[in-house]
Amino acid sequence: MNDMTPSPGFDVDRIRADFPILRQTVRGKPLVFLDSAASAQKPVAVIEAMKTAMETQYANVHRGLHWMSERTTEAYEAARDAVAALMNAPDRHEIVFVRNSTEALNLVAHSYGRHLLRPGQAVLISAMEHHSNIVPWLMLRDSHGIELRVAPISDAGELDMAAFEALLEDGKVGLVSITHMSNVLGTYTPAERIARIAHAHGAKVMFDGSQAIVHRAVDVQAIDADFYAWTGHKLYGPTGIGVLWARRELLERMPPFLGGGEMISSVSYERATWAAVPHKFEAGTPAILEGIGLKAAIDYVRAIGYPAIAAHEAALTEHALASLSAIEGLRILGAAQDRGGVVSFALDRAHAHDVATLLDRFGIAVRAGHHCAEPLMHRFGLESTARASFGVYTTQAEIDTLATALVRVREFFA
Ligand SMILES: *Cc1c(COP(=O)(O)O)cnc(C)c1O
User: Distances in Å between the alpha carbon of 159 and those of 150, 178, 310, 334, 406?
Assistant: First the structure.
């Protein structure tokens, strides 16, 4: 059980002190924030970086010839370097800043999907995708005649690898797009194996890393991915900025997604030519302050270190699974071998929304609903669940508070 022991030097109380919001009480109780998978809280380093930029170092980027614009451009572009290093991207020009994961997935569907996939080819997703990795493909299917295939999962919430491979056998799949970690089940998917199998059948592969990159180091070269998408606000960064990483060779071949300023090389009324990657995909004034905030978030995460984060969250998850499964009438969704800090559950006879509302009276914040994964809910015969999710600042005591409160909540529905 050594890998479950928090690493030496990881001090959750010290980490909590970095998050001002956690000092609050809610309904007279200490805030127990178990909704980090929807959006994580922000450390003071992120808040200060954005505030300092606004107070001392702010102008529009890339076009300015004045001192202030040059400094701001440097700070913003430093975020691109930080992202490239975080993901072990071979080339900083492969980092495209977008608004969030949803926009990254839509960019690939519109640009790669419409122009480099042919009608009659298929896109293969899994049965545990977030709506943002389903709906863009439905839209592409309807506009472009792409077939959408869905690889099934087991009752434990793991990807059925044999069925996955069988769906690639006819060679029609041009793109596999799969979550790297489920936001509902917590399941990690075997990314390297998925990429190997996809490539063996001539398909490109994209990962939705919105959850995965929060909890474990991601190395796009080790995975051998072609596209990787994630969102800043779940990694303790600001909203409004996300990342699409893609192989440069693919970005070069892909047409722009949005047109406007910043993404052109020249414009006349006859034609426009495109800026070099990644700027070709970054139309308009970017999220400058958010980029600066994202860099601060990445620096914060790297200073703690992924091994310590992963060990802390593994211990929390193990503790949560043990304490929640001991509650009579509580069903936990999924039981994957390889899973992260997300636990979805249903209480007998209780609607998930009522459970969340009652937990709120104890100062506990959990999410309830379909978690933007309606087809996955239906796969488990449910309309909704409650979900507790953990971050660097989550404590075992908070999970105990949740378990104790759930026993009380259950009495309402007995
Ligand atoms: C949150 C999430 C998304 C969407 O992220 P946005 O920031 O809302 O675009 C996509 N996929 C997964 C797995 C998520 O958890």
Answer: 11, 10, 22, 11, 30
Helices 352-361 and 396-412, packing angle to 10 deg: 120
pLDDT tier for residue 7 given thresholds of 50, 70 and 90 = low
- For ligand 1, say whether the CB of 106 is within 6 Å of any of its atoms: no
38 alpha carbon – ligand 1 mean position (Å): 8
Taking the mean position of all CA atoms in its chain, how far away is CA 265?
32
- Residue 8 banded pLDDT, cuts 50, 70, 90: low
Q: How many Å lie between the centroid of ligand 1 and the Cα of residue 235?
A: 11
Range 25-51 average pLDDT: 97
Q: Which CATH class is domain 47-302?
A: alpha beta
Categorize the per-residue pLDDT at 1 as very low, low, confident or very high, splitting at 50, 70 and 90: very low
pLDDT recorded at residue 2: 39
Domain residue ranges in the chain: 12-43+305-412, 47-302
126 lines ligand 1 (CB under 6 A): no
Phi, then psi, of 368 in degrees rounded to 5 = -140, 140
Calpha distance 103→231 (Å, rounded):
9
Which tokens is 83 given? 């992202």
> Which CATH number is associated with domain 12-43+305-412?
3.90.1150.10
Please list, in sequence order, all residues whose beta carbon lies within 8 angstroms of the beta carbon of residue 414, skipping any fewer than 6 positions away.
Answer: none
Catalytic residue numbers read 372
Ligand 1 centre to CA of 132 (Å) is 7
Task: Tell me the per-residue pLDDT of 124-155, one tens digit each, with 9 for 90 and over.
Answer: 999 999 999 999 999 999 999 999 999 999 99
- CB of 101 within 6 A of ligand 1: the answer is yes
334 alpha carbon, distance to own chain's centre = 19
